[in-house]
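Render this sequence as a predicted structure.
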Amino acid sequence: MAEVQPRTARAAWPAPGVSRPLPWARRRAWRTLRRGSGLFNLAFLALVVIGAVFAPQITRYDPAASEVTQRLQPPGWLGGASRAHLLGTDQLGRDVFARLVYGSRISLIVGLSTVAISAVLGSGLGVLAGYYGGRVGLVLMRLADIQLAFPFLLLALAMVVVLGVGLLNVILILGIAGWVGFGRVARGQVLSIKEREYVEAARAVGAGETAIIAQHIVPNLLTPIIVLATASVANNIVIEASLTFLGLGVQPDLPSWGNMLADAREYLNVAWWMSVFPGVALTLTVLTVNLLGDWLRDYLDPTLRNV
């Protein structure tokens, strides 16, 4: 019998004095985030979230309090302007910076709430359509095709006219109207996943359909759904601002960016700060959410794991 050679002892790692590197996933996340303007996007989005959460601590002005004697004051950092209002005041003497900070709450609430509704509703219907197929899948996909035949903004406008304006109505309308994208993505993924070996093995050992969906189907849907959700957040923020700008969104008394832009229409020549600051905030917020969505897609894409 051949003599068995002793197994060589593994050298200690890491060596003394050498710090252990980050795990692969964290290293790759940091590497992809550093590309381009990823860190700037993350920092700006963090500022928006902090402003929305701590708005009362950030500004001492009530965003709805008007002071006619201070109306149309220019930003405080301009020469000769009062420093009491950092970004100036609007036509009613309300502080633009306070309304800008409080307005981020509306945008984040609408963006996150509508996507949560769309993702749950669309993913659930997509799983049913993809897993069971048959008439259930046919009916659901035909409903999706019919809804896709209408422009999204036009459909939202029609639903607002029926249900009325208001923050809650806008959330419900955008949440329900946005299910199609999530449903189609979920259905496509389920059609592929349900034919794989581990699903067949689960059926062979007697696993029920509910257990298969919960343990094998849904976890494999998370990556594409999360990536789609980030793009939908940015899209819904823009649509809410558009509806509010047209007078069909949130209530006029709420300090939203759409209301600020609507109020600034008649003062473009005499008070440029009323439109520029909410417009820049809206543009940068949507841009950073989209770019972070691209980073998230690159990070979660299994084909890029060796990058």
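Summary. The mean pLDDT is 80. The chain is about 65% helix and 0% strand.
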